[in-house]
Amino acid sequence: MDIEEHIREIRSDIEAHRFANEAAVTLGVVLRLLSVLNWPCWNTHVVAPQYAIQGRRADFALCHPIDQPIALIEVKQPGMSGTASEQQLFEYAFHAGVPLVVLTDGQQWDFFLPAEQGDYGERRVYKLDLLEHQIDECLNRLVRYLKYEAVVSGAAIKAAREDHHKVTQTRLVQATLPKAWRKLVEEKGDLRDLLIELITDQADTLCGNKPDPETVAHFLRESLTLTEQPASDRTHSVKPSRSAASQVSPPRPEPEPRYRKTYRDMLNRPNNQPSRMLEYIRKNSPLSFADLKKYLEQLGYKVEKSGSTAASLNALKCKGYVKIDGRGDSKTITWIRSSK
């Protein structure tokens, strides 16, 4: 039986909840995988169980040369690996001076380089989940970091450091991107103007309405808040319990965009674009957007070079005066009700 078949059987056993405690994980997963990764598990001077370190004991020390640990493995019962376990493992590694440490509950395998900088998470090379990852990925990572020949030759530590360097670079890029976005959005110049122009043209292509530059600039400024908000805050949601459901306040409505309020307020005054559009639609409903634009051009409005027409129509729709069906110049505008 090759290592891939062993991984498949272990996955099946994990899914069937056959590893109820730490001892079961040790025998059924850890020692089984170490054996097929060519470690001489029968030699306790190479795979040393309950390895004593400064009055404490690591579950396993992988040794090379004999009795000299080069990697430590800490085993936890399913679902119990966490920050406390990481701290314990790093203390072992500090006293033993090993370059590679592994924390596993059978399903999840965390590979760390304790000598690197940062908190526990920043010193993690890779988090492997035997159920969530593909078989090929499980096989490749276990061989890359834990195969006997790779560990004793130093190739596994070298590979782990290379992978950690890539992870660190990715983390740095992800932290820098919001700053680059803010710089591009806030600083006036050719790049910002080009960005506004590109978004304007794309919006026009998608819906047939060209927003004015200030509307796009306002959208970009609002986007800064989203890009700089932690991902956990953007995605985390808690479903209230039945007993607490009655105490949950309804969500607050999002603030009305400034441009929409501006055009909506214009409806209260005569002889401006939104109010003239409103009256024309009321008298000629239903009509196409192309017909509406022709009417506005006759009044002297530059409908093709400004987003004010689309913004005015959007204000009418949001106010509940009109219904819009279709897209582009052929979309139909239908009068719904009289103004309040």
Short descriptors:
340 residues; 13 helices; Arc Repressor Mutant, subunit A; tt1808, chain A; alpha+beta; six-stranded mixed β-sheet; 2 domains; elongated; three-stranded antiparallel β-sheet
CATH fold-level label of the largest domain? tt1808, chain A
Strand order of the largest sheet: 1-2-3-4-5-6
Largest sheet properties? 6 strands, mixed
Give the CA-CA distance, first to last residue: 79 Å
The helix/strand class is alpha+beta
Q: Which architecture of the largest domain does the CATH hierarchy give at level 2?
A: Alpha-Beta Complex
- Cα-atom radius of gyration: 32 Å
- Strand portion: 5-15%
Order of helices and strands: HHEEEHEEEHHHHHHHHEHHEE
- Please give the CATH class of the largest domain: Alpha Beta
Average pLDDT, rounded to a whole number, is 81
* Overall spatial form: elongated
Number of helices: 13
- How many β strands by DSSP? 9
Provide an overview of this structure:
By secondary structure, the protein is α+β, with helices and mostly antiparallel strands. It has two domains: 3-166, Alpha-Beta Complex (tt1808, chain A), CATH 3.90.1570; 258-335, Arc Repressor Mutant, subunit A (Orthogonal Bundle), CATH 1.10.10. It is 51% helix and 14% strand. It contains 13 helices and nine strands. It has helices at 3-15, 22-36, 83-96, 135-146, 148-153, 155-186, 190-207, 213-228, 231-235, 258-266, 273-284, 289-298, 308-319; strands spanning 47-53, 56-63, 69-75, 100-104, 108-112, 124-129, 287-288, 322-325, 332-335. The strands form two sheets. Strands 1-2-3-4-5-6 form a six-stranded mixed sheet, sandwiched between helices. A three-stranded antiparallel sheet has the order 7-9-8. Strand 4 (100-104) and strand 5 (108-112) form a beta hairpin. Helix 1 (3-15) packs across helix 4, helix 10 packs across helix 13 (308-319) and helix 11 packs across helix 13. The radius of gyration is 32 Å and the shape is elongated. The model is unreliable at 231-254 (pLDDT under 50).
